[in-house]
Every structure is written in structure tokens, then in C-alpha cells.
Amino acid sequence: MHPLRFRFWIVTVVSLSWLVLSSWTVGADEIQPPRRLLFFHRSAGFEHSVVKEKDGKPCYAETILQPICKEHHWELVSTKDGEVFTPENIATFDAFLFYTTGDLTAPNATDGSKPMSKKGKDAFLKAIESGKGFVGMHCATDTFHSRGDRDETQPVDQRDPYINMLGGEFIVHGAQQTTTMTVADPKFPGASSLGANFMMKEEWYSIKNFSDDLHVILINETNGMHGACYQRPAYPATWSRKQGKGRVFYTSMGHREDVWTSPQFQSLLVGGISWAVGDAEADTTANIESVAPQADVMPPK
H-helix or E-strand containing 169? Predict the structure, then answer.
């Protein structure tokens, strides 16, 4: 392991008495080790309040994730340090959780953290392609922007490889407001409790450059929203897709602190992580053309 400063949440969800009892029936090598998750929250652009660290204490998002990981037998490693992305370190993780902004290979980060190297980025993307899981939250789409005008869509070959992996790219956002999330796939892990739709106040992202193989889970309804960037047809807000052998999940929710504590966000996040690491299965057949057929219609400049 690279000699970096991490916070490790080593999770033990079985008691000593259970281990003693189970030792009569299973060998030690049959006890599944916890899934290892890297929570990466470097801000090379705007730094959100939920990932700001103060006085050496964990950021707000990390304090929410820790008990969730403990409950689900996951080990959480949290860092802003881009130097973690070496082939040796990458190989030790089952999935990567991103709450990031900007060009993560740029040296001058808003939060003062060290950059990811270009080789590190390539190794990370190759790892997803080879079977690792990825979970993007909120500003993960505001990361590694594509070449060209932000107010226009780009052809696939002009999109950043990270954006092609993720499946969508942030354009801009308006004022925080309450709107409707329509549940396009209630069978996806964590979505069954959401009902047919739900209302939430959030900083909603207007998104572009959608992959045509997205399996849409939540649709951002725009009818009644105020702000020029939302004057467009409904578009995906949460989705999953396969990148080679890897599993990719993204939700645009996660700006507000009260969203992090909401049952809707937490249920969906647990479901997304569970699916990304292979603990849960789901039908991820592309459905964007049927549930959000006008997703590529851009808002007015």
C-alpha cells in the first residue's frame, strides 16, 4: 500500500461467539472478507460542503457512509489523495465511490490534495473495464469534462474516457428546488421502497452526453421546475450501465446534507453499491430510449 494518509473503517459484523460456533462447520478460508471500497473525494473544482474536512476530522459524507458500510460488511477507505491510483493499490479494491470535481490529474486542487497521475487515471479506467465497480454521486459527472462547448453535446470520440465510462456529463445547475423523481425501474436494488415517484429538494444537475446503453433508474421530471437549465424534456438522474466487465452506478443526488440522511438516497446508494460489487443482481438492459426518449434535447444556452 502506498504510504498515504487514509482513514480505514475495518468492519467486523460477526461476533467472536459466532466465529467459534462456525469454526465447527466452515474453514477460515470460506469466510468471505469484507468488500473494500475506496471513497475518493478530491475537489479539483468546486469543493462541496459534504466532503470538506476540518481539523483532521472525517468529512460529513464519510460519517454517513461509515455506519452504512459497517452494516453491510464493507470496508471503507476514504481519501482525497490522487496518488492512491496505482495499479497495486487499485487491485486491492472491489469498487470506487467518487464524489469529485474537475480534472483530477490537475496539480492545483481546491482542497490542496495531490493529483491523480495520467497513468493512474488510465489504470483506474482499465480496472473498471476489467471488472471493478464504480459508484458516482452528484458531482461525479462534474469531473473530467469533455472537449468542446459545455452547452453542446459531444460525439462519443470527443468525450473524455471517464465520461464515456460514467455515462453522462454535468452541464450546469440552477437554484435548489423540489421536483419529482420518477422511478423507471422499481426492481433495481434499493429502489423498491421509493414508490412510483417521490419529491425531493436538491441541487439538481442538468446533464448531457448520455450513453445510449444507460439503464435508467430515476428520471428527473422538469415540468414546473424554474431556471433556464431545466427548460428541457425529462432526463436521467440515476442510472446503471456495464463498462466491459465492470458495473457502473450513478445518482445525481447528494449535494445537500439532509439528502445524505434521507431514506430514499441511502436506500438507493446501498442498492447501487451492492450491485456494483456483485452482492446484488439486476436487469440493466438499456432503456433510455423508452423511458427518457428526449434526454438529449439540450436546454437553451
Answer: strand 169-173
Instruction: Delimit the domains of the chain by residue range.
Output: 7-291
Phi and psi at residue 50, to the nearest 5°: -70, -15
pLDDT digits (tens, 9 = 90+) for 142-173: 999 999 999 999 999 999 999 999 999 999 99
- Mark 65-102 as b/e (b = at least 16 C-beta within 10 Å): bbeebbebebbbbbbbbbbbbbeebbeebbbbbbbbbb
Report yes or no: 59 and 52 within 8 Å, Cβ to Cβ.
yes
**Residue, of 151 and 4, whose pLDDT is higher:** 151
DSSP annotation string for 266-282: HHHHHHHHHHHTTSS--
CATH topology of domain 7-291: Rossmann fold (3.40.50)
Place of cell 439486476: 282
Render pLDDT for 47-88 as a digit per residue (tens, 0 to 9). Answer: 999 999 999 899 999 999 999 999 999 999 999 999 999 999
Grid cell locating 298: 439540450
User: What is the rounded distance in angstroms from the CA atom of residue 239 to the CA atom of residue 118?
Assistant: 27
Query: What is the structure's pLDDT at 108?
Result: 87
Most distant CA atoms of the chain, gap in Å:
67
**Centroid of chain to Cα 128:** 13
Strand order in the sheet with 177-183: 7-9, 74-79, 35-40, 95-98, 133-137, 246-251, 235-243, 215-220, 177-183, 197-202
Q: In the chain, what is the straight-line distance between the N-terminal and C-terminal CA atoms, in Å?
A: 46
Q: Give the residue-averaged pLDDT of 204-216.
A: 98
Q: Rounded to an integer, what distance in angstroms lies between the CA atom of residue 76 and that of residue 41?
A: 13
Burial category of 269 from C-beta neighbours within 10 Å (exposed 0-12, middle 13-18, buried 19 and up): buried
Calculate the alpha carbon distances from 176 to 100, 207, 230, 257 in Å.
20, 15, 12, 13
Residue 16 reports pLDDT greater than 60: no
